[in-house]
Amino acid sequence: MSKVHVKMTINGRAVEALVEPRTLLIHFLREQVGLTGAHIGCDTSHCGACTVDLNAISVKSCTFFAVQANGAEITTIEGMASPDGALHPLQEGFRQMHGLQCGYCTPGMIMRAHRLLKENPNPTEDEIRSGISGNLCRCTGYQNIVKSIQYAAATINGAPYQEAAE
Amino acid sequence: MNEMTRTQAERAEVLQGMGCKRKRTEDIRFTQGRGNYVDDVKLPGMLFGDFVRSSHAHARIKSIDASKALALPGVKAVLTAADLKPLNLHYMPTLAGDVAAVLADEKVLFQNQEIAFVVAEDRYIAADAIELVDVEYEALPVVVDPFQAMAPDAPLLREDLKEKRVGPHGERKHYNHIFNWQVGDKPATDAVFANAEVVTKDLFTYHRTHPSPLETCQCVASMDKVKGELTIWGTFQAPHVVRTVVSLLSGIAEHKIHVIAPDIGGGFGNKVGVYPGYVCSVVASIVLGVPVKWVEDRMENLSTTSFARDYHMTTELAATKDGKILAMRIHVLADHGAFDACADPSKWPAGFMNICTGSYDIPVAHLEVDGVYTNKAPGGVAYRCSFRVTEAVYAIERAIEVLAHRLGMDSADLRMKNFIKPEQFPYHSALGWEYDSGNYHFAMQKAMDAVDYSALRSEQKEKQEAFRRGETRQLMGVGVAFFTEIVGAGPSRNCDILGVGMFDSAEIRIHPTGSIVARMGTKSQGQGHETTYAQIIATELGIPADDITIEEGNTDTAPYGLGTYGSRSTPVAGAATAVAARKIRAKAQMIAAHLLEVSEYDVEWDIDRFRVKGLPEKFKTMKEIAWAAYNNLPPGMEPGLEAVNYYDPPNMTYPFGAYVCVMDIDVDTGVAKTRRFYALDDCGTRINPMIIEGQVHGGLTEAFAVSMGQEISYDAQGNVMGASFMDFFLPTAVETPKWETDFTVTPSPHHPIGAKGVGESPHVGGVPCFSNAVNDAFAFLDAGHIQMPHDAWRLWSVADRLGLHA
Predict the structure, then answer these.
(1) Distance CA B647, CA B631 (A)
(2) Is A1 a residue whose pLDDT tops 80?
(3) Residue B690 in contact with partner chain A when CB distance is under 8 A
(4) A161 and B736 Cβ atoms separated by less than 8 Å
(5) pTM for the whole thing?
(6) Confidence at residue A165, expressed as pLDDT on a 0 to 100 scale
(7) Which pLDDT score is estimated for A161?
(8) pLDDT confidence of A156, banded at 50, 70, 90?
(9) Structurally, how many domains does chain B consist of?
(10) Could you read off the pLDDT of A27-45 as tens digits, one per residue?
(11) How many Cβ pairs within 8 Å bridge chains A and B?
């Protein structure tokens, strides 16, 4: 199958490659670029494990072609920690509040929460629950994910989060 | 740091041992997308396998034509049963003593059954190629309803077993019958029922569902023909068993097989079994000499690998008029699908269903289970459950509610009246178990006090009167459930998998500088073993948990174990860990005595050191002892500081809990809203309360899903309905209720650290609690038992049947 030339910025790094027009963005990221943080959980855009940030919106990369991402600015979970290795407040929040168990949904969940907090820096619990409702988790029951995001929001807003993980 | 001046509390805190809310070590990699799951494995020259699957539920295969697929550039092979037959691999043994087709041999027995395995250069080409394989079918009559499976004129499903009158679990009554299994004293039970003042009898159907971890089943098989060695990376909850099975099936010596279970994205029972995808990947890699990857898609996962439940339980209780339960009788019709692929210990065709007398002192009981074949996917796995315990607890906890309603008693009072009393432990149940420990009355009372139970009942009564007056369209339900689990399988005298006893193992090695690597035969799928096993060792050996690395899942390095399912990791491998640590501590005591120049009986353990009795300032820390183990030992002592333990548990453990759910149901929409859910769990000694609470949240969420909507159903032609996340209910953060957790602690008397296991309790107790809440809401209208799942359509239908929409 003939291939198409694409260029995009991924985690601040310029990437160019030849891809088949039908290559899904998730497969491009995982298999061509070597970023395996985003996962595939359902193939039908229900579970959100493949969520990445693309041109400042949350995108489920399992139902998005790599060619559609031509020219885009993409952030994946691998681009969240500081270059010096310090965890992003969301990553720290998920660890502190026990917001993950098997870890499979976590990259997508964090990327979705990242965009949610950009759009709404101080969300209520209901807004968080609604905001992450496109991302499924089978392990945690979401209660500690909500706290993880609250922890991150507090940290980003400069107010330490007091409550402990349950 | 001054070893002399730190207090004991300070020294204990540094260890991050048992009982503390230690943050998880796993999370450093998982939060950064640096986990290593099977689909992350990428090897040079790796090919991709994908299945051609049956469109029919029951049909004869007249022909398979793969020529067009083979002509597609990039396609390397198409395997069918004809290719596997010469290798005797077209069928594989199941854990239940049956065989299951790897690739359909002459006929298909369920929709989406594997027919051919296409191997291609990438997954896109493989997907193209499966569309090019032409399969010609001759449709056959379908058996979907298990109650029709043993009809005299029912279609014959398993032609391969046609002549077999006796199966692995005894006589077969019909060609679609698998086994009949009975426990208990039938004549004595029948006699009590014949004379009882009150008898209840109901059919409780526990519908077919699926564990559905977010990561599907997958593997990479890589045959090195030069070395004659096979490496398999896979989503395996029991990697060592997989290695043994692969060796037995393939004839490759077990030491030449390397099984690696890397990070696993949830299991919940789905990843215990061996599936055709694994076998075909191995065969393809052997044939082609290159690595082959197989990754299920979600539809394949939901419709082929390992359903759960599908138990149809006719449940009877005999009682006195004042609510003393005298006997229990259950008949189960068990729908096992096309092959008996239940993942139970070999001698237990219905798992531990005989825990169905629950938390109650029931003098006599009889349980009978008939398993049948139908044209549905095989499985019957323990979905977040220890081998049919979920089904057993559902039966007894629904029956208690029905009996309470019949007697006009409050169901909590009925439970209190019939609970096994604290002084009765160890308690021998009528169906053969020895319950290790419990304090049910205390736990139930604590739960009732926490939710102000009597106030809830008063409120409910007012709401019911308001409903009758037409002032509200909401029904309030108060669901109560009290469960006793049986986990930690199990003693090798009665528990084995394919003949291997269900022990588990731990190997601990202390390095000269006092850090530790420890390996277990289990395999975490999100339970946090890397964190919690280190806490056990930290407490037992006085080495900080942060200096301990836990490894699982590599059969080359880890000691043999039976894996992680049925809440067995803490009861079995956790015990092995404590025992291995104690062996090391016993040697360390001798080394310490040698270093301190006293008798080993003159030193005593003190958190992270041995000290001379009466002279606390004279001590050797474990770090010092570790160094000495490599250079300054008592004369004649073997160097090094390590131990291994294979732990064969003396008994199961019996966690328990009391749950209460408050629910409001709108009779005009059928929408049920959980107002409150309180869960009290007693899992014995608590290793990491944070992880326990997380497990409880997750288990309750899965219980909510199963009871309120999640289902794998089939139409009359055997077409599987709802095999994608479009239809299969996985709750989002919006629907999921908020959970209140609580606990009591009743240690297991036979476990080295008193721990019982917790991962499955919330699912086991949660499902009947939700279902009881729904049933309780309608009970005052004499609705009778309402079957799960309780989705809005079904609840609206119940309201409609009761004439509430008139």
Answers:
(1) 31
(2) no
(3) yes
(4) no
(5) 0.97
(6) 56
(7) 86
(8) very high
(9) 3
(10) 999 999 999 999 999 989 9
(11) 182
pLDDT range class, residue A166, cuts 50, 70, 90 = low
Which value, to the nearest 10 degrees, does the dihedral of the CA atoms of residues B683, B689, B690, B694 take? 10
Residue B705 and residue B384 in contact, taking contact as beta carbons nearer than 8 Å: no
CATH number at residue B349: 3.30.365.10
> Do A89-156 and A4-79 fall under one CATH topology?
no
3-state secondary structure of A149: helix
Cα distance from A26 to chain B (closest Cα, Å)?
12
Q: For residue B769, what are the domain limits? A: 307-489+652-801
Which residues pair with residue B684 across a beta bridge? B755
pLDDT in tens, A79-123: 999 999 999 999 999 999 999 999 999 999 999 999 999 999 999
DSSP B651-684: S-B--EEEEEEEEEEETTT--EEEEEEEEEEE-B
* Residue B162: inside a domain: no
Residues of B with Cβ-Cβ distance to A98 under 8 angstroms: 23-24, 690-691, 693-694
Write out chain A residues lying below 8 Å of B264, CB-based. Answer: 102
Give the pLDDT of residue B2.
Answer: 64
Query: Nearest-CA distance from B710 to chain A in Å?
Result: 13
Cβ neighbourhood burial of B379 (10 Å; 0-12, 13-18, 19+): buried
Rounded Cα–Cα distance for residues A102 and B525 (Å): 6
pLDDT at B498: 86
Which two structure tokens, joined as six digits, stand for B133? 């394989």
Write the CATH number of the domain with boundaries A4-79: 3.10.20.30
Domain ranges of chain A: 4-79, 89-156
Find out whether B242 and B217 touch, Cβ atoms under 8 Å. no
Which pLDDT score is estimated for A164?
Answer: 59
- B347 CB burial (10 A radius; 0-12, 13-18, 19+): exposed
Give the tens place of pLDDT for each residue, B449-458. 999 999 999 9
Kindly state the DSSP code that residue B213 receives in the 8-state scheme.
-
> In terms of CA atoms, which chain B residue is nearest residue A165?
B690
B637 touches chain A (CB under 8 A): no
Please enumerate in sequence order all residues whose Cβ is within 8 A of that of B359, keeping only pairs 6 or more positions apart, or say none. Answer: B396, B415, B419, B420, B438, B440, B482, B483, B484, B656
Q: List, in sequence order, every beta strand (DSSP E) within B261-363.
A: 292-295, 307-319, 325-335
Q: Evaluate whether residue B186 is within a structural domain.
A: no
> Which element (helix H / strand E) includes B768?
helix B761-779
Q: Which residue's structure tokens are 């260029």?
A: A7
> Is the minimum CB–CB distance between A62 and chain B shorter than 8 Å?
no
The answer to whether residues B561 and B504 touch, using CB atoms and an 8 Å cutoff, is yes
Cβ atoms B580, B644 nearer than 8 A: yes
Q: Which residues of chain B have pLDDT under 70?
A: 1-2
| Residue at token pair 């160019």 | A16
Cis? peptide before A79, omega within 30° of 0: no
Contacts of A146 in chain B (CB under 8 A): 733
| Inter-axis angle of helices B529-541 and B575-596, nearest 10 | 30
Q: Are B337 and B480 in a shared domain? A: yes
Closest CA to B303 of B388, B375, B390: B375
Are both B411 and B325 inside the same structural domain?
yes
Q: Which CATH class is domain A89-156?
A: mainly alpha
pLDDT grade for A58, boundaries at 50, 70 and 90: very high
Distance of CA B633 to the CA centre of its chain: 45
Q: What is the pLDDT of residue B596?
A: 98
Specify the residue for token string 């991962």.
Answer: B759
Q: Is residue A107 within 8 angstroms of chain B, CB to CB?
A: yes
Residue listed under structure tokens 């909590």: B412
Among chain B residues, CA nearest to A45:
B725
Q: Which chain A residues are closer than 8 Å to B733 by Cβ?
A: 128-130, 132-133, 135, 137, 142, 145-146
